[in-house]
Design brief:
binds 2-(butylsulfanyl)adenosine, five-stranded mixed sheet, 25 helices, 665 residues, alpha+beta, D-amino Acid Aminotransferase, Chain A, domain 1, Helix Hairpins, 5 domains
């Protein structure tokens, strides 16, 4: 026991010293990886010995949803949440309580409750200076750079009657359309899907790379203003002012004078919300007058002047007719429930996702079962419950298939994975077609055509792997039914042109499991030609930023397969790019090796993106926000004052663009 105590003490001392080096001196002496390893070791020892717990242990610093890599800032006003209610009776109780407490007339503002990530924005002199997540309500992550990429959030306000300084809070959301596209992309990559737009939003907003955030097309709705000199004495009137200044305020927001008007609002939006482009999970009621809000005050957790009413997730009863199995591009098998059609949230549901064999087992599904289907925050309905009491005693239990439904091969399941795969990569038709479809997509080789084109070529026996595309003759294609000479030529022309596609996209196009666009870019930058990548071992691969063991093992496995190595050789002979272009290579140096840069403001000589590329090409790293890890801030015009102050405080070197260019000379 004594030795465990000593070990814990020693780890705490060591980690505290590293924390100090990192956060106070901005001079870390061990790698993040080493730090995290020690922290994990300490956390495990503490979990085994709860009697040795200490609130001042370094393990207690990593709290709530706060991401270590963002700067944490204290909220000027705590970010509270709302009490939830589920029935109209509870809404009536809220109304009566407010009426009794105020003992005077009051108005209620009804709003939609948007389902995303809450954010607090600070504006000084009409400029966005800071955007902070809720965090634990007291402190949150400074994600200003990421938030700047959200188009509906004004960086500079319109008009001139805004207060010198104020905060405005709201929700960052991912529209359904963007969410569906993102998940489709992830499904193509056989990456884990986001369960709902809320998770996708919070996953996006915590990305270290603002470029990824920008590509995800987030949106925002603002619903709460705070500050000393707000324009009006009413919440609603302030929101209308905010709208004039350029903020996105929901058009649904409505001022009500009676409980009947409130009920009508709830009733209307309970169904109408299904036609909105973004997810909502309820309604928020707020007392309008700010002075009445002050009189009502707060409990320890919630304001007494506001309440949330949560919509019921819609569910329906139907019957399970059968289970079918789809085979993905990498051979992953997805079970799908075929249901007796039933109306749910305005659409007819015929199928539900069953995720994987564990999910089927957990539900103890039998064919013919009476099942409950639900559409929660997600668009694909799921079976949430089975009514086993009404089950026919002779009904057949659903047993996950053992063989591939398309080619009959015995399925395999990797240890620790929930998914079954068909290992017959080279001969299983949906896998062959899926790989070719992926190869030709716009973000990969950008060859014209889609799944239908692939289907035609496959059925005409013209392609069996992506290499066959490069020997296709337009004359052969034009012999396929419904293919005119012109479209056949277009296809072969675009195939010929695809040999110019750069190396990182060719890597992506190969369709290696878990190697999406971003990972492909990272791999290409670290292994400038495919021979280096093919011979890389686990250690070399995981040394690359953001490449974990799962991805590394998948890359190794891919190149261990002789057919894949032959394919690469074959494609190389057709002239595809398997190394970084000489132009890119000639610009690469290690002058900035290991240095972390934060870029802020606007520049004269080059764009921000060009500067970012220069940093990476010279061995440096870009980061979204200033922290103890930052080495340099590349400051342009209009660098945010909060940022400047922070950088100066930590003692980070601030470079003007001329200084930076000199460093590279
Ligand atoms: S008002 C003190 N209004 O719901 C008032 N919140 O459970 C604070 N939300 O954390 C919040 N739409 O993330 C408010 N129209 C709305 C909202 C809303 C969504 C979220 C927000 C908050 C949570 C409260």
């Amino acid at each position: 026991m004594d030795s465990v105590e000593n070990k814990i003490e020693q780890l705490r001392d060591e980690l505290n010293r590293h924390n100090y080096n990192y956060y106070v001196l901005s001079n870390p002496t061990i790698s993040d990886f080493e730090f995290d390893k020690k922290l994990k070791e300490l956390a495990e020892l503490e979990a085994l010995h709860p009697d040795l717990a200490d609130p001042n242990s370094p393990t207690q610093r990593v709290g709530s949803d706060i991401n270590k890599s963002f700067n944490q800032v204290a909220h000027k006003y705590p970010m509270l949440s709302l009490a939830n209610t589920y029935t109209e009776g509870e809404i009536q109780d809220f109304y009566n309580r407010v009426k009794k407490d105020l003992n005077e007339d009051f108005e209620i503002v009804c709003e939609l409750k948007y389902d995303g990530t809450s954010i607090s924005l600070t504006y000084i002199d009409g400029k966005l200076v800071q955007a902070v997540t809720r965090g634990d309500g007291v402190r949150g992550d400074d994600i200003t750079d990421n938030v700047r990429t959200i188009r509906s959030i004004p960086l500079m306000l319109q008009g001139n009657d805004y207060p010198h300084e104020f905060e405005i809070r709201g929700e960052i959301v991912m529209p359904w359309k963007v969410f569906d596209e993102l998940n489709k992309e992830r499904a193509d990559q056989e990456e884990q899907l986001f369960a709902n737009p809320r998770n996708a939003t919070s996953g996006t907003i915590k990305q270290q790379d603002p470029k990824i955030v920008a590509s995800r097309k987030l949106d925002s709705y603002l619903y709460y203003m705070l500050g000393d000199n707000l324009p009006a004495g009413g919440h609603y009137e302030n929101l209308m002012k905010a709208k004039e200044w350029g903020f996105k305020i929901s058009d649904a927001t409505q001022k009500c004078r009676t409980i009947d008007e409130v009920s009508a609002f709830i009733k209307y939006w309970d169904t109408e919300r299904k036609n909105l482009p973004v997810a909502t999970d309820g309604i928020v009621l707020k007392v309008n007058s700010l002075s009445q809000q002050r009189n009502l005050g707060y409990t320890s957790k919630f304001p007494r002047w506001a309440i949330a009413f949560k919509f019921q997730a819609e569910r329906e009863i139907t019957q399970l007719l059968s289970v079918s199995y789809q085979v993905g591009r990498t051979g992953a098998i997805t079970p799908v429930a075929n249901l007796k059609p039933v109306k749910l949230s305005g659409t007819t549901v015929k199928r539900a996702s069953l995720y994987n064999s564990d999910a089927i087992e957990a539900l103890d599904l039998h064919i013919g079962d009476t099942v409950y289907v639900e559409k929660g925050g997600e668009i694909i309905p799921k079976i949430t419950e089975v009514d086993a009491s009404s089950r026919d005693m002779f009904s057949e239990k659903v047993v996950f298939i053992k063989n591939c439904p398309q080619c009959g091969t015995l399925l395999v399941r990797d240890e620790g994975e929930a998914v079954y795969y068909c290992p017959n990569e080279q001969n299983c038709p949906p896998q062959i077609k899926g790989r070719i479809e992926h190869f030709i997509t716009r973000k990969a080789m950008n060859i014209s055509g889609g799944s239908e084109t692939v289907e035609h070529l496959y059925n005409a026996n013209l392609v069996r792997n992506v290499g066959d595309l490069y020997t296709l003759k337009w004359q052969d294609v034009s012999r396929i039914e419904r293919w005119a000479e012109k479209s056949a030529k277009n296809l072969t022309d675009s195939i010929a042109k695809s040999v110019e596609v750069p190396y990182d996209r060719v890597l992506f196009a190969l369709g290696i499991r878990y190697v999406g666009e971003t990972v492909a870019k990272k791999l290409a930058a670290s292994f400038p030609n495919i021979d280096l990548l093919m011979s890389a071992n686990l250690e070399q691969l995981t040394a690359v930023d953001e490449i974990g063991e799962r991805i590394a093992l998948s890359v190794i496995k891919y190149f261990e397969n002789e057919e894949n190595r032959n394919l690469v050789e074959h494609l190389r002979q057709f002239g595809l790019q398997f190394e970084l272009s000489s132009e890119v290579l000639s610009q690469r140096t290690d002058k900035l090796e290991g240095k972390v840069f934060v870029i802020s403001g606007t520049f004269d000589k080059y764009s921000r993106d060009e500067y970012k590329a220069m940093i990476e090409a010279n061995g440096g790293k870009n980061s979204g926000s200033i922290s103890g890890k930052t080495d340099y801030v590349l400051a342009g015009h209009n660098m945010g004052p909060a940022k400047l102050e922070k950088a100066t405080k930590i003692g980070i070197t601030i470079l003007k663009e001329e200084d930076f260019l000199k460093m590279l000379e």
